[in-house]
Amino acid sequence: MDKFEQLDRKYFHTFDALRFLSFFLVFLQHVPVPDFSVFSFFTKSGKIGVSFFFVLSGFLITYILLHEKSSVRRISLKNFFVRRILRIWPLFYAVLLFAFLTPYFLDILQLSFPKDGYNPNWFISALFLENYMMMTTNGFPNVSPLRVMWSLCVEEHFYVLWGIIIAILPIKKVPQLIFCAILFANLSRYIYHHMGVEWLDLPTNLDYFAYGAIPAYILLFKPELLIRVQKMHNLTKYILALTAIMLVFIIPNLNSYWLNALAPTVLGITFSALILFTLPEKNGIRISNNLYVSKLGIYTYSLYLTHTVVINFFLKFEFSTSEFNFIITAVVSLITTILVSILSYHCFEKHFLKLKKYFY
Q1: pTM for the whole thing?
Q2: By C-alpha distance, which of 182, 179, 269, 171 is closest to 221?
Q3: Dihedral over Cα of 43, 88, 316, 112: its sign
């Protein structure tokens, strides 16, 4: 057991609840709802849910890397990458295999198969490049699980880039790195917009991860700022939480390019501050670990990868064409996805996660 393994790394329980709530935003966007429905206002925030995942990932990965570097003066990239592989790859490739076989099973069962979208290139998908296929075709793959995998591709690219940079960069240069990442992402989005390209890769989403890195750096190297945050009045924290909730639902309903262009910055700063406010042991917006929303947070990865498959399965039943259909489909799909994810975690993912202890 090395020195780093003996050191206490924090587990941020409040994040489990935030993970599940972010997934729920993605889930709602993928449940079909009539445009005229009152629910339509609340079902457009899936991309923002993904954006929060990026901010949260930026925090956790930066915290892990900087914690190791400040503790033992170096980062074992091999161990870092193996831990990421054990977390991401097993279920990713299992779902990918399911996606490959889905059309054949549906043909055998004489069930319809959606033809809208492009035919996947399985080699591209396996290399975590689905996001670039979506960008070049300006469309979605016609196999439902692959439609959400673009964000996992972005995450994988971030792990590689950020891990290497943090390993070779002096800790004192991290604030400059964060600033450059934010600037680079904004410039990338501006260029992509004028090229007519979707913002589905790491360059156009890098600032979300960078905003997440800010509270990680503060937690490790600026404890005096964290003390000041802890002393802030709870009313300030409640206002921030309420603001975050309002932005999550208002921004997707805006049609102005310039407002949407500013959205990543506004959301990034808001989410970064929200994470910062939840870090102190005593804070006004801490979410109890005993709530179901927190307990479900540990299954978020499987929830994210499997929910579109479950939704599409239940859509075949066509309960009705009214808003009632949306409610039934949403409830039944959510419950089923949770059950599938619990089984996936305990019967499959957990066995790979146990191996992570050998790579610290």
Answers
A1: 0.92
A2: 171
A3: positive
DSSP E strand boundaries for the chain: none
Torsion, Cα of 117, 119, 124, 130 (10° steps): 10
Domain locations along the chain: 3-358
Q: Which residue has the tokens 């904004």?
A: 186
Residue 110 backbone dihedrals phi, psi, to 5 degrees:
60, 40
303 neighbors 145 (Cβ within 8 angstroms): no
| Mean local confidence (pLDDT), 57-66 | 97
Q: Report the interhelical angle of 202-221 vs 174-195 (nearest 10°).
A: 160
**pLDDT above 70: residue 318:** no
Question: Tokens 């407002």 label which residue?
Answer: 259
- Taking residues 120-140, report their average pLDDT: 94
Compute the distance between CA of residue 340 and CA of residue 331 in angstroms, rounded to an integer. 14
CA dist., res. 206 & res. 119, Å (int): 28
Chain-wide mean pLDDT for the chain? 88
Query: Which phi and psi angles does 50 have, rounded to 5°?
Result: -65, -40
Q: How far apart are CA 285 and CA 277, in angstroms?
A: 8
For 88-108, give one letter per residue: b (16+ CB within 10 A) or e. Answer: bebbbebbbeebbebeeeeee
Taking every pair of Cα atoms in the chain, the longest distance, rounded to a whole number of angstroms, is 64
Label residues 10-48 b or e (16+ Cβ within 10 Å = b): eeeebbbbbbbbbbbbbbbbbbebeeeeeeeebbbbbbb
More confident residue, 220 or 280: 220
